[in-house]
Write a structure and sequence with these properties.
The protein is an alpha/beta fold. The protein folds into 2 domains: 164 residues, D-Maltodextrin-Binding Protein, domain 2; 139 residues, Periplasmic binding protein-like II (D-Maltodextrin-Binding Protein, domain 2, 3-Layer(aba) Sandwich). 39% of the residues lie in helices and 16% in strands. The chain has 11 helices and 10 strands. Strands 1, 2, 3, 4, 5, 6, 7, 8, 9 and 10 form a 10-stranded mixed sheet that branches. Strand 1, helix 2 and strand 2 form a beta-alpha-beta unit. Helix 6 crosses helix 11. The radius of gyration is 22 Å and the shape is globular. The termini are far apart.
């Protein structure tokens, strides 16, 4: 059949769109070695300037795909799993660790002994050199200082489960992001029975918010007296002039300490641009990057003990840090996640099941 000019035009447009898609986000990136593809869970406003610094220094172009707030890190991790044996990204910059370990367990990460590896504590790097932790956030309590006097401040995450705070304390839904990571660590540290009972009590007492940012804002606005959130969200409310204070929880002699959750960086197995990817990985672990992230609005916490924090946040060197086996936490997360999903997600009838 003879094609009309209209049909030719439609075909041409389709080809152009296909080629554009290829250039933007497919294996066609492999045609240039002077670039590196990064899937990035850290907010663009914080990570993009770091990439620009790297490009200015090396000439290597960084092609970044960012996550979206609606699916947190899960979407990027699932994309990496879907791409499987034909990876389109070279590096995964995760803003937590749970899903990095999920990828490790699926054998999707490539071991790489970074020249910076010895700068970081063993607790925050893979023994197999498949991931490195840097620039952490701490899990803290943000307190409204207009509603609570200093001697009333909560000092432990266990207070979220106390009936005296019913309706006055907040927590993000523990299914995504750092709250899910925190839950996994509690299941790994406490065991199933204690962790399940804790979250049942939290569900009864606390106001469950969409995310850590919403927890911090509910406290700063006076809707809640205190809540569990991340240092970056708490710092923003504090530095915006709200009447809040930050408590690093569980600092008593017989308590478990404050959880620090690192950003993680990992090389993909079969990375299309392995050489530039290793360059960027080393750069991200450099002291200057941790300093820049610490000085930024989100006040990321340096994990390299030779890097000084800004004084806006505490570090694992200045407060008692929770001792966590992240691998064990990831091991237990599957059944823990199902329990928490049933506990915190509404059924079709609008009611919440209590497993």
């Amino acid at each position: 059949m003879k094609q009309t000019s209209h049909q030719h035009g439609g075909f041409g447009i389709a080809v152009i769109l296909a080629l554009a898609s290829c250039v933007l986000f497919t294996g066609c990136w492999r045609s240039s070695e002077n670039q590196v593809v990064v899937y990035t869970a850290l907010d663009r406003q914080f990570s993009e300037p770091i990439f620009e610094d790297f490009t200015d220094r090396t000439g290597v172009q960084v092609r970044a795909l960012y996550d979206v707030e609606s699916n947190k890190t899960v979407g990027l991790a699932n994309r990496i799993i879907t791409e499987g044996g034909r990876p389109r990204c070279d590096l995964f910059w995760n803003n937590e660790i749970l899903h990095t370990l999920r990828l490790e367990r699926k054998n999707l990460l490539e071991a790489y002994e970074s020249e910076r590896s010895g700068d970081f504590p063993k607790a925050f790097r893979s023994p197999d050199s498949t991931w490195y932790g840097f620039a952490a956030r701490a899990r803290v309590l943000i307190v409204n200082t207009e509603l609570l006097a200093p001697d009333e401040y909560p000092r432990s995450i266990n207070e979220l489960a106390l009936p005296k705070w019913r309706g006055r304390a907040g927590i993000a839904k523990p299914l995504f992001g750092t709250t899910a990571t925190h839950a996994a660590c509690l299941f790994g540290t406490w065991g199933d029975q204690r962790a399940r009972e804790f979250f049942r009590q939290v569900k009864q007492n606390a106001s469950v918010q969409a995310g850590n940012k919403q927890v911090a804002q509910a406290v700063s606005s006076g809707v809640l007296a205190f809540g569990l959130t991340d240092t970056d969200d708490a710092i923003i409310e504090l530095e915006n002039g709200h009447d809040v204070a930050i408590v690093y929880p569980d600092q008593g002699e017989d308590q478990m300490g404050t959880l620090f959750i690192p950003n993680t960086i990992s090389l993909m197995r079969g990375a299309p641009h392995g050489g530039p990817a290793r360059q960027l990985l080393d750069f991200l672990l450099s002291p200057e990057v941790e300093v820049k992230l610490a000085e930024g609005r989100s006040a990321q916490i340096p994990l390299n003990p030779n890097v000084n924090a800004t004084g806006r946040v505490e570090t694992p060197q200045t407060v008692q840090a929770m001792q966590v086996d992240f691998e064990a936490a990831a091991e237990r997360w599957g059944h823990a996640a199902e329990f928490l999903r049933q506990l915190f997600v509404r059924t079709d009838g609008g009611q919440t099941r209590t497993p």
